Amino acid sequence: MSAKATRLLASIRWSIAYIVVIPVVISAIIIWISYQRISDFEKAQYNIAESTVVLASKEVSELIKNQQRLVGIFTRNEHELIDMLAQSPNDDSLKQQLSQKLLEYFPNHFTFTLADHEGIPILDDFEGYIGERCLRDIKRVASGQEQNIHIHPNPYVYHIDIMTRWGSSQKGGIFFVSFRTDFLGKFLSVSSPHRHELMLVNTEIQDLIEITEKGARISLKRDDFRLTEKEQVRMLYSAPVAKTNWKLTDFREPNLFSDYRNEIITFSAMIIIIFLIGSLIMTVALLRVEKRRLAAEKIKEEMFSLFNHDLRSPLNGIYATMQLFTQDAIYNDHEGCKKLAGAGFNNAEIMLGLVNDILDVQKMESGGMEFEFEQTELVSLVKKTIDINTQYGEMHKVSFELVNYDSEVYIKADKKRLQQALTNLISNAIKYSPENETVTILVATKGEYTRISVSDKGPGIPKEFQPLVFGKFSQSKSELTRSIGGTGLGLTIVKYIVDSHGGYVHFETEAGKGTIFHIDL
Prior knowledge:
Strand content: 15-25%
Radius of gyration: 54 Å
Largest sheet: 5 strands, antiparallel
Order of helices and strands: HHHEHEEHEEEHEEHHEHEEHEEHHEE
Number of helices: 12
Shape: rod-shaped
Number of domains: 3
Strand order of the largest sheet: 6-5-4-8-7
């Protein structure tokens, strides 16, 4: 395998490594970071739930204690009215007065009653506001047990009961006030973190919902007030509420984790796709750069080949000639001197032509080739160019024929540059023509353009080389081409000059029969 092929293969392997290995590594890192973010998010939600529940459960307990304290203050402040009502339980006026006082203190209360020291109600409950569970709780408190707050179902309002003692142990009893649960629901609502829900759940009756952010469980539109399996899966943290039958529980929204997970996955996928597209673009760009680099290296190699063969050969000829001129004996042979001087001149002329071609290409690429357009009579210019190349043709035993031309054809052109392009075509035709053949030049007007054609009877251009004809340093690898030599820049210069005149250069060729180059201006 050649060094050039090895370098190209290495470049392709490196590009494949870049487009495959690096994106895979980066994608793996992004996936790992995404997994960590999802895990951290879930842990953060658990931590939020824990801190919220711990603080909120204490606050709920304080709310209940505060309500108990206020009921106790009310009982002490209104003890005379309570005593009077206890002595006259059928006095509707007294009952109405106490009810009005309660309304001033507790706008959200539901009902009240009085019981003696044994827990037996003193006031009649004709409306049925005081249920069986309320009566059991009154007796428990009357017997000295601690009251545990819980929800009391009722056909009218689900409520909680607050009880306190009034009067002495023998003459007093239990003052009982029922409260709607709205204040607890509002507290849960304002305490709940974003996309979380707080509930008070009964600890005695497993998984029974007591109070939610909407209020008591009766506010929920459902048939079963126990926690479902799906709700239990969403449970993040629970903590008991002191002096109640409740535990405060935090539930996440059903889609809290999945929404965040999908968001992270989508974002990560977008990053990976953008990175892959960027990597692909970068790889294509690198391959193009590598292709240009290899092309430049090829041109460099061709230039070294040019220096090695086409420049060094005439330079060696000049060197040998000048070396002979240093010998005194050569001056006695006048014909020999003349022949040597002619050989040196020809070699120097070849070198000058090669250097001029290289400099012209450099000017073309840098935009430094200047043109001076003026009205030019084309036929005269072609004839003059033929005259300039006549001696070169005679050296190769090739003649010229100018055919089918109009008497006068005027165009806008740079005489010097156009003549240079024609000279390159004519000299090529001479070099590739067999001895005693004729190079034919045609000048003709065809509609809106004028055509100059230069044809030879040479071997023609090989099919595989035809696409490269106008490329820099392009020469066929045939034995004939190698023997003729040259820079491979002549036709590149021709195309640039013709293009700069707004024209078009092209060719027709046939193996063994010759080639015709056309310049259409």
